[in-house]
Design a protein that fits this description.
By secondary structure, this protein is of the alpha+beta class. The protein is built from two helices and six strands.
Amino acid sequence: MTDQYAKIFRDNWVPYHLVNFQKLQLDETVKINNGYEKFWVKILFLETTDELILGKVSSKLVNDLPYNYQDYVLFHTSNIMEHHTKEDYEENIIKIQKQFNEYIDENYPNEDFTAITSEKEEQLKNEFYEKNIIIKN
């Protein structure tokens, strides 16, 4: 399915009334809640009249829902429970990379990863995420 024909999902989003619409910018991330789980969404479009937001789910969801990672969702500003600016996102990436490097040093002290394959790197990252609960949602 191409983005041109992508479905936009709505849900019974939980209201929080914590974020000012005027502070939101495109490509930032917000956390919303569908009543089953909380997850991050990247802001793609801001509709100013009704304060609606079109975003793309940036978390892999645990529950079996009609939408999941990379799907489009539409929600109101009042449904945002947390907001990360681009600077917050960059800081989190640096933090996660540091934690990942420390994990590798602690768990694989004698291995040489200078010529690591992308498949092996993905395997190590998945292992790291499963053992360390960090910024998944």
